[in-house]
Amino acid sequence: MFRKFLEEGELPYCKGCGHSLVANNIDLALQKNNYSLLDLIVVTDIGCHGIIDKSFKTHTIHGLHGRSVALASGISAGINNPKKKVIALVGDGGATIGMQHIIDAAHNNFDITVIVHNNMLYGMTGGQPSEFTPYGFKTTTTPEGMKRAGYDICSMATTAGAKFVSRVIGTTDFSDVLAKAFATKGFSLVEVMEICPSYGVKANPGMKLKNIVEEAGLEIKNFVDKESDSYQAEIRTDLKSLFNDYDKIPVKYKSDINSPVNILISGSAGEGVQSAAEIFAKAAVSSGLNVSKKGNYPVTVGVGFSSSDIIISPNEILFTGTKDPDVIIITSKDGLDYSSSTVKSSSNAIIFCDSSLTLPETNAKVIKFDFRNKVPVKNVSLYALLYYLNYSKIFPLDALLENLKSDKLIAKLDLNKLLDFSLN
Amino acid sequence: MNNEKSIIFTDNSKIVIEALTQAGADVFIGYPITPANLLYHYASKRFSVFMAAPDEITTLQWMAGFSAVGKISVTATSFPGFALMIESINMAYMMELPMVIILVQRLGPATGTATTGAQGDLLLLNGMISGGMSVATFNFSDELDCWNISAKAIEFAVKHRTPVVILTSKEEMMTKKSMDINLLPAILKYEREFYNSDENYISYKPEKNLVPAFLPLGNEKHQVRITASTHNMKGIIQNSTVEAMNNSKRLHFKNFRNIEDYTFYELDEVPGANTIIVSYGITSHSAKEAVINLRNDGKKISHLIAKTLLPVPQKYYEILSNYKTIVVAEENLTGQYQQILFGSKPDTNIISITEFGKMISPAAIIKQVSNYV
Fold first, then answer.
1. Which residues contact B23 (CB under 8 A, 6 or more apart)?
2. How far apart, in whole angstroms, are the C-alpha atoms of residue B16 and residue A228?
3. Residue B246, min C-alpha distance to chain A (Å)
């Protein structure tokens, strides 16, 4: 046979190995489809099939065991050019390791052809079974035969959304099937059934490949053959900088503080701790202050405590970690549980705490207020910060109100209630 | 109204993503993981190509695919995801594919605490490449570094055909601060050069600075061979021929030699000081604050902030050799950078300040350092 895509001479496989036949059929199929050498990108990985890499005259890339399909997916999405053909070669061992990649590539409909060299065992490492090894098939580590059936990759790829899937027996000319797969737009897969002459034949003397395939219930057929579009990476060209004018905070107000104030607000998830802290922080920025804010919460963001450390300072803020806070605002039981050790150890702090809560013993100054009953609980954090700001006047209340009015939250707020700090 | 400043209130994740894209990064591929989520979020709005991968191994494989066809790919993850990426980062290192991996450290071991910061992954990076090599690793000390060093990370990766790690942490990427964006200098997009000769292209033939010229897989002019297995200059797999061994060794020397021009650090020295604090990443602000307070108390103390971490720039040894006592402050249990710099049984003049599960406070640094100044 005339070779166009493979180097002349012997291929690097054991005598009788089906992999040579696969390589020659690939060459023939590519010729049938009139590809030129540099239209092709052959992606291989570890396993006997992968050493064909050096025999291809096309672009080649040789990666990690089981990952050729994922690598080919990235190449195809990256090159985004239907003129280029990306072929991923993989063994049954590699397909076992990288099954997720095959399912995922079919699911995303990446424009690649996967050729699974299924010789039913790991040939390069001594003939151990893969997840493709059929029931009853003997390998070096399962001399009694496999006790379970192997994967039917063709059915799996079809279910995952492949556009062309076929299984062939690797003893004949199957270049037409490969040519069909290569011509398919989108994801195609051909499984070639083989038997490893070094391990498979020796462990299963006298067994014919055709019979093994038949007994395993692996049908030789086209599973799917659909017209479709393939995955196209969306390339966005109209993107703007993440820094926009809307984010700029004009300094319109003034603060008289001359040293940093560390504020800890501690409440419950769902009660607006983080959003209130953000609005408060931005208001401090608009008052000419340097500000940092960090949130603390469990990974389940919708339940349990939620707290925020805010530092406001006339000077540059360096360390943003939790220091002994100057102000502790506690709006709920969760918030108290989270901050109770800080409360106990604070002697110079001033604590604003909901009336319903019992604080541990502390030398700090404590101001109790009925935050939770005065406003809906989802606004209790904002209310407590407004209360604190009205009390301390560390920057103008108007700064916070202006930031609040430009926030989408405002539509859902009753400002009269939020600014009512009377005891009744 | 202050007309000279443009103040915004932002986390550093936004700064990093904006800088990477302005420097020329094309594609972000990722899998959401705390505390790298903000990077993922901003990337989905800013990168011209954004792809959500089903897992972290796929992430790195897709990135390698994009990189092999001439794109500049970026991802962001934390230890659990990074651990899954390591074999593929080795692959990209061997294939010589440029990419940037942002590792946002959180508290381990294992899944640990996703919402608590840490500096616990540096020792893993040192020697992460099988054979004992390390990938170039940069980190930030402040928001200006997030801007400048992100751009430099892209430049280093592309110019030297190599994966690069940006090592950062939860508090650095998620804490919000007010800042003046007018202080951020313009970033020029890195203009990469592809091989453009008519002579046959040899994928791994070293040229300037031990770096082979790059040509995308799939180009119309020359065959390109890329491989992760031991190979000769043509990209043909070989066992341990002299040519193949030289090629593998070149990968180390390429990074080791070229890191010199990308050695970023901040040195704040006081004449007559015998003690120097070494910090990096999230601990740098704390150390800076400690230094200010110590000096206010009349103590003579110097400070080195390391921003290029690996391979260890030899310049650091030159600086540190002028000091009697060296204090390395970092947020992990075992003093990782101290071990990398001075070994696991350092001299008595090497002092390690560590913290596990919370940020090192300026007070903790002052307390320790006061014993030596």
1. B150, B151, B154, B155, B187, B189, B190
2. 39
3. 20
**Burial class of residue A31 (count of CB atoms within 10 Å of its CB; 0-12, 13-18, 19+):** middle
Q: What is the CATH number of domain A245-418?
A: 3.40.920.10
Residues shown for chain B: 373
Name residue A395's amino acid. Answer: F
- Give me the residue from A75, A239, A299 closest to B69, CB to CB: A75
How far lies B150's CA from each of A240, B145, B214, in Å?
A: 18, 7, 22
Beta pairing, strands B113-117 & B99-107: antiparallel
For B1-262, CATH number out of 3.40.50.970, 3.40.50.2300, 2.60.40.10, 3.40.50.880 equals 3.40.50.970
With CA atoms as reference, the chain A residue closest to B179 would be: A290
ipTM metric: 0.97
Task: Judge: A281–B359 Cβ closer than 8 Å, yes or no.
Answer: no
Nearest by CB to residue A63, choosing from B51, B71, B91, is B91
Q: How far apart are CA B335 and CA B351, in angstroms?
A: 9
Eight-class DSSP state of A322: -
Tens of pLDDT, residue by residue over A147-198, are: 999 999 999 999 999 999 999 999 989 999 999 999 999 999 999 999 999 9
CATH class of A18-225: alpha beta
Using one digit for the tens of pLDDT, what is the confidence trace for B226-279? 999 999 999 999 988 999 999 999 999 999 999 999 999 999 999 999 999 999
Contact A154, A165 (CB under 8 A): yes
Domain ranges of chain B: 1-262, 264-369
Give the whole-angstrom CA distance, residue B78 versus residue A309. Answer: 23
Topology classification of domain B264-369: Rossmann fold (3.40.50)
- Rg (alpha carbons) of chain B, rounded to whole number: 21
Residue in A76, A248, A299 closest to B114 by CB: A299
CB B328 within 8 A of CB B369: no
Q: What is the pLDDT of residues A310-329, one digit of tens each?
A: 999 999 999 998 778 999 99
How far apart CA A33 and CA A35 sit, in angstroms, is 6
Asked if B17's CB is within 8 angstroms of A84's CB, the reply is no
Same fold, A18-225 and A245-418: no
Classify residue A373 by burial, with Cβ atoms within 10 Å: 0-12, 13-18, 19+.
Answer: exposed
- Residue boundaries of the structural domains of chain A: 18-225, 245-418
Is the CB of residue A160 less than 8 Å away from at least one CB of chain B?
no
Whether B1-262 shares its CATH topology with B264-369 is answered: yes
Assigned token pair, A299: 């990974």
Contact of B237 with A51, CB cutoff 8 Å = yes
